[in-house]
Specification:
This protein is of the alpha+beta class. It contains 7 helices and 43 strands.
Length: 599
Amino acid sequence: MQSYNKIEGVLIVLIFVLVFIAAVSKFTYAQYSPYLHDKTLYEITKQKSTQIPHITVGAFPSAIGFDSFTDKIYVANAATNTVSVIDGFNNTKIGKDIPVREDPADIGVVYDTHRIYVANMGNNTVSVIDGKSNTNIKNITVGKAPFAIGVDNIREKIYVSDTNNTVSVIDGKSNTNIKNIQLPVGKGTGAIYVDEYTNKIYVAVGNNTVSVINGTTYHVETIPVGTDPAAINGFGEGTGADGFTDKVYVANKGNNSVSVIDGKSNTNIKNITVGAYPSNIAVDGDKIYVANVGSSTVSVIYGKNNTKIPKDIPVGNGPSAIDVDDLDHVVYVANDISNTVSVIDGKSNTNIKNITVGKDPLGIAFDGDTKTIYVSNAEDNSVSLIDGEANKVVARVMFNIEPFNSGHIECDDATDKGKWNAPLKQQYYVYSGSGCTAIPYPSFEFVSWQENLGKNSTQFINATAKPSILDPILNVFGFNPDKPESKLSITKFGNFTASFRPLPPPIPPEYVATLFTVVATAFIGTWLTPALIGWRKTRTQRKYFKECIYQIGKLDKNAIDNKIIGYYADGKLSDVHHQLLNDKISEYYEEKGSDRYSH
């Protein structure tokens, strides 16, 4: 009986609330037509994105070239045979991607002429892009499957290594292939390093050697190094710290070593054991940083005495590319398996942070003027931007609101819990994962977030759920809870608009008290009508009827007869129930009696 009474109480409260809401709704929304597309918008946009902010480029971006004088970033897209151009001043992609030839693999930049040279492995050509007009002005035939490019900015020459053991020499003034240099026979050429100060070109050859080309006579010398040389870098004449000059470092992935070449004598003076499968090298001052793909570490070599620090630095999985900030001595390592960029403090030789970027980062470039790191993500077809001051991924956004003066936008910075009011119609940067909340002014409510696309088109990315039947009563009492859909997590570059709509006018306070009295009186009067009283009595009698049916056969005939008589006298059983039970008892106990005598 106790649980039964509780159910009655809940039903009473529920009916009262529904009647009250219906009455309030009639007053509150008399002149308001709900937005018919609210539910559809919510269903479309309620999924939250987990992607990293990025600039969209062509398919499978890998190599990155950087013109520090024009502050433009060039990205080779291997799968679409294009080059994307990013303006480093506002970090937007400039125009359409530039068509080149098949399978662009590497990029070189001549700073004085702002010409960009792209090695096309699938077409045996080098495409020449005019950086002023961002157009492909020429395709130059070179050796088979050109793989890597080295640039001599002083003499305006471009050197292109290929898989046929040749190096093509391009004159940057005439943009012609002026010579194909045959190197010693091996398994093909690979990485290339140009020492502009000594006018020497170093090329890794597949027969465990490095070929040294004299840039004036094109004479070739051969230097034995470790097994399977994969990357080359070094100090030019007069560029090393503390007088350390003219040394070249070769990463040998076949035997986990770095060979040190003396550029004056063209001899291998030392082989240094490093981590597993070294694949890339960067130089900062008198330190050489070696990315080891197989051990997910970076080895550090001191150039003064060519000794490695005892302990390699752990980074992310699959370090594939490396670049340095040579002013603040910070090293950035792209890890293509873990989808991160590791930040190494070059003063303490420690990994201070792993930053999540897009999928399969293969290329990296550092802009010293803006302290921005550009990372090409091959699987995402994107470029991530890292703020070198904060070491965080950033997104460029611009906000607007509709209608005018209906609310404002408040953002946080994702980690430091600070908040600020976002400016409207102005481009600026926020950190990845920052939350920007659309806050309505009085008499307005949030409706949706939209992303503004090109050609005046838009798409919804966050929208309010369909209005609840409780909204009217909450509005009456001034209780309007925050809508979680109003918070936009920044996961992409773009222009975003927060839309609001006017709220219906509130009910005057004097009407609320009168309305409550009317509804309560109507409710009590309804609850006490004869129909409801009869319904409750019928429901009670049905309960006791079921109880008696259940106990037939479990109690003897006298006991069950007495129980039925008592319930009937108390009004707990109707006449119909009483007659049905008597018939059932007679039938059941007579059958039992005849069964007993038959045995």
